[in-house]
Amino acid sequence: MTVFLVRHGLPLKEPDKTPAEWSLDPAGFDAIWALRESGRLPARAAWFSSPEPKATETAQLLTDGQVGIVDELAEQRRETTDHITDFAATVRRAFAAPEEPAHQGWEPLADCRDRVVTAARRIVEVHDGEDVVLIGHGTAWTLVAAALTGEDPDLDRWASLAMPDVITI
């Protein structure tokens, strides 16, 4: 069994919406189609997605098959439309102090970890022996990758993830 954690494609950042409401930017479709044709994803697998539009739209461009929507696979909740000058530093702060919101309106990373890792483990257990593709988000997948491998979260890998990209476990 292999787990493929797919980060969504390039979002269209809309300043009057929270990140959870963003859709894909059509300028990034070619990168998603290139991933589809790359051979990096299995021909046969169980597919699941975060409910966020940028994730479900990525899934629609990556496969013609069925994709289950799992609410718990949503990214760390960031209920703000504030522009964050140094997003990477804010995310790193979330990993450094996971019990505290790293920014006003952000879900504590520990809460995100509990939700996303529990959902991912449940999916993997139900599909034991079968490849699994999860479409979602960089921060969430950094937490899931750490939990499934028993390693510390790899923030350098998080920082280098493209949109889209794949972490294979």
UniProtKB/TrEMBL annotation:
It comes from the Bacteria. InterPro entries: His_Pase_superF_clade-1 (IPR013078), His_PPase_superfam (IPR029033). Gene3D superfamilies: Phosphoglycerate mutase-like (3.40.50.1240). This is Broad specificity phosphatase PhoE.
